[in-house]
Design a protein that fits this description.
Elements: H1 4-20, E1 24-31, H2 32-35, E2 43-46, H3 58-71, H4 77-86, E3 90-93, E4 99-100, E5 106-107, E6 112-118, E7 124-127, H5 137-141, H6 146-170, E8 173-174, H7 176-184, H8 194-210, H9 215-227, H10 232-245, E9 256-262, E10 265-270, E11 278-281, E12 286-289, E13 303-304, H11 323-328, H12 333-343, E14 347-356, E15 362-368, H13 370-376, E16 381-387, E17 393-400, H14 403-416, E18 430-434, H15 447-459, E19 464-467, H16 479-492, E20 497-500, H17 506-519, E21 523-526, H18 536-549, E22 554-558, H19 560-563, H20 569-575, E23 581-586, H21 591-600, E24 608-611, H22 617-623, E25 627-630, H23 633-636, H24 638-649, H25 652-668, H26 677-685, H27 703-725
Parallel strand pairs: 2-3, 4-7, 18-19, 18-25, 19-20, 20-21, 21-22, 22-23, 23-24, 24-25
Antiparallel strand pairs: 1-6, 1-8, 2-5, 6-7, 9-10, 9-13, 10-11, 12-17, 14-15, 16-17
Helix pairs in contact: 3-4, 6-9, 7-8, 8-9, 13-14, 13-17, 15-16, 16-17, 17-18, 18-20, 20-21, 22-24, 24-25, 25-27, 26-27
Length: 726
């Protein structure tokens, strides 16, 4: 049976092929209502994700009003506002209609748009051309005046049909080869399109010269090209839309298909989730202003759809291609190279055709993968213009796509596909084992030993495995090592696997949770953040925040002798009703505290209060704890398993015998006061591990100390078998 991981891999390979082989052609210029699917007379389109009228920034609301006035749908601005606010005129996200709306711009039904078709898939994208002497105008900045109206009317009546006829006669103009050459010549296609623009103009002049257009129309076309410095930019954006629309709904794919903002919220879409938005507050840009007297308070948070280019391997992703863009941001070419290389850590591949000289002709990073963003904590960089609240361009800069967008998307992926769907409740019963982490000489995971250990423990009857707790040295391992262990164990056994993810901060803990989910864990368990003396309120907020972000069931881990913080009973009482917080592992060996936890959660019978020390299993099970977590189980899980079975059967004599045997094992594995070092010494001595290596700076032991532990272990070996068969 094909695994979810295999399905994701196959889906992303399909998406990547489409992204690599996209072949955009500029095929026409027509009013949107004549060429864009689903456009209707009472529809105005804005940039960014969908947003309610009352939540929009005033700049975007005014743009909507201006769009209504241009379409003649209202006689006054006040009437236009009323119709937009009431919904009589629909005000929707352009991205949902295959139209790129840059900046604070607006698209309307009768506005002329460029039509770009991806010849590889047949999918089309649209973007209005920039407005010559009016610069951004209505389409780019949402501003409107008589000069802009005159220009838009002329585009619809004369220039649009003229360019369209030229394109129809030529069979369209291929844009891919222009982009390939432009990237090699210093364009990253978002903040700079100079080379692409010159290549396009050169070819377009020949087509205009050979056309049947009147001399007057030809002159107007040339004047538009001459007066529109960034004429290629809308074509690049429409090309990006035609590509991304072609991968908009690919089940299981984790590739980003939209990145855009509206001045209030910023949203992304994921290939495997169709047209769903995942939003967060729109980020501010950092960069350089065109004038020294500009006040930062006049700058809008990110607004515009132009960063669709970054999702295609251009813009910020191709920063290394554009030293002029870096200089405009008061940065260096080396900064651009570093920026592209960093983005490469969160993408699936390098582009086969967009080759960057500064990277040794390596392709630009292509295919932003939601999983890699979450795994690395790297937020995609987006280039763009700083827009004022009055719709003016104030400068150029960069922003980062908010991590919260990806966190929300991951939750939705979890709900829709496979393993992650089990996010509501998980009950823990019986005996679990907190497994050691087998390491090689370089502190990498010894995968074969990990597989062998997991299978042996499960074969002795445990109900689940807890990885990366105090026994598993989770606090000392790299994130990649942790994922390696989880994947290895998950593939080896059929019981649930819980992974330790606690750190000193909420953000880092959430990143660990996503990494554990990506590696295949069934649940996560987190110690409270240590180092700082957090109180009950802060701990409650910490666990609530982690649970909200987690795609997996969450368990609390109380082990104050290591962490220095005990989780207050009142905190557990507050957290127990969160549907994702499913229990607590109590490892302080404090029966009074355990009793208080059981009392505080008695109204939630599905909230698992686990005892984390086999020293007190004989007491914890009768008190009502449904599960116990053994560490001795790494050597031999049978004493704990048999104790639990004896408790279920009411066999007091067997309970006492197994409890005594467990206590004797605990004394062995704490002989030197270096736990869990003694545990690994025992396992190596029994031939269960190749090495008893610990993470540095764990101290090494002498041969005499090692022999002291093994002598104590040997005394128990024969007795264990006798007790078990008695």
């Amino acid at each position: 049976m094909e695994s979810i991981k295999d399905k994701v891999t196959a889906a992303n390979e399909y998406v990547l092929e489409r992204m690599q082989e996209t072949d955009p052609y500029w095929v026409g210029m027509k009013p949107a209502i004549e060429c864009v699917p689903d456009i209707h007379e009472k529809l105005i389109l804005h940039s960014g994700p969908a947003i309610a009228w009352e939540d929009m920034c005033e700049t975007q609301r005014q743009g909507g009003v201006n769009g209504v006035m241009y379409e003649g749908l209202a006689k006054t601005e006040e009437e236009a506002r009323e119709k937009l606010a009431s919904g009589e005129i629909e005000f929707a996200a352009g991205n949902d209609y295959h139209i790129v709306v840059p900046g604070s711009g607006i698209a309307t039904p009768h506005m002329v748009v460029n039509i770009v078709e991806d010849r590889h898939t047949g999918v089309r994208g649209y973007c209005a051309p920039f407005e010559g002497p009016n610069r951004g105008g209505l389409a780019g900045w949402g501003v409107y005046n008589p000069a802009i109206k005159k220009h838009l009317d002329n585009m619809r009546g004369s220039l649009g049909p003229a360019f369209d006829s030229v394109l129809q006669k030529a069979g369209g103009m291929g844009l891919k080869r222009m982009i390939v050459r432009g990237v090699e010549m210093g364009d990253e296609l978002h903040s700079r399109q100079d080379a692409c623009g010159l290549i396009l103009t050169n070819e377009l002049m020949k087509l205009l010269y050979d056309s049947d257009l009147t001399p007057d129309i030809k002159t107007q076309c040339v004047e538009l090209l001459y007066g529109t410095v960034r004429f290629f930019h809308p074509l690049g954006m429409a090309a990006a839309m035609s590509l991304l629309e072609g991968i908009r709904d690919v089940p299981y794919s984790t590739v980003v298909t939209a990145m855009l903002g509206n001045g209030v919220t910023y949203g992304i879409k994921i290939a495997g989730l169709g047209n769903e938005w995942f939003t967060a507050p729109s980020p501010m840009l950092e960069g350089s202003f065109v004038s020294a007297d500009i006040d930062m308070s006049d700058v809008l948070p990110w607004i515009g759809d132009s960063c669709m280019l970054e999702a295609c391997g251009l813009g910020g992703s191709a920063a290394a291609a554009a030293p002029a863009v870096m200089r405009a941001q008061d940065l260096t070419m080396d900064d651009g190279i570093e920026r592209s290389r960093t983005i490469g850590e969160i993408t699936l591949a390098s582009h086969k055709y967009y080759l960057i000289p500064a990277l040794g002709y390596q392709g630009s990073p292509l295919g932003i993968d939601m999983r890699k963003v979450l795994r690395t904590g790297i937020e995609p960089v987006i280039h763009g213009g700083m827009i004022s609240k009055s719709g003016r361009r104030l400068g150029a800069g960069v922003a980062h796509v908010p991590m919260a967008c990806f966190e929300k998307a991951c939750l939705r992926v979890g709900e829709k596909y496979g393993r992650y769907r089990r996010t509501i409740r998980m009950m823990v019963k019986g005996i679990w084992c907190a497994m050691v982490t087998p390491l090689d000489g370089n502190e990498n995971i010894d995968r074969e030993a990990a597989r062998r250990t997991a299978k042996r423990i499960v074969g002795q009857g445990v109900d689940g495995l807890l990885l990366l707790g105090s026994t598993g040295e989770g606090i000392a391992l790299t994130r990649e090592a942790k994922k390696d262990l989880i994947r290895t164990v998950r593939d080896a056994v059929g019981v649930p696997v819980m992974a330790g993810c606690g750190t000193t901060s909420t953000r880092l803990s959430i990143e660990n949770v996503y990494a554990a989910a990506d590696a295949g864990a069934d649940a996560v368990i987190l110690t409270p953040p240590c180092f700082y003396p957090f109180g009950a309120e802060a701990l409650t907020e910490y666990y609530n925040a982690v649970a909200k972000a987690s795609p997996l069931p969450v368990f609390i881990y109380n082990i104050s002798r290591y962490v220095g913080v005990r989780v207050p009973v009142e905190t557990v009482r507050r957290l127990k009703d969160d549907p994702k917080i499913c229990g607590i592992k109590e490892s302080d060996r404090d029966l009074d505290y355990l009793r208080e936890l059981l009392e505080a959660t008695k109204d939630r019978p599905d909230f698992s209060v686990m005892e984390g020390s086999e020293r007190v299993f004989a007491q914890s099970f009768p008190m009502g704890s449904p599960a116990g977590v053994t560490v001795v189980g790494n050597i031999d899980a049978r004493p704990s398993v048999e104790l639990y079975r004896a408790w279920l059967a009411g066999d007091r004599e067997k309970i006492d015998a197994m409890q005594k045997l467990s206590l004797d094992y605990v004394r062995v594995i704490t002989t030197l006061g270096l736990f869990p070092k003694e545990l690994k010494i025992c396992m190596k001595g029994m031939g269960l591990l190749e090495s008893d290596r610990m993470t540095a700076p764990f101290p090494e032991v002498t041969d005499a100390q090692r022999e002291q532990v093994l002598d104590a272990l040997r005394a128990l070996t024969d007795r264990t078998e006798k007790e078990l068969i008695r």
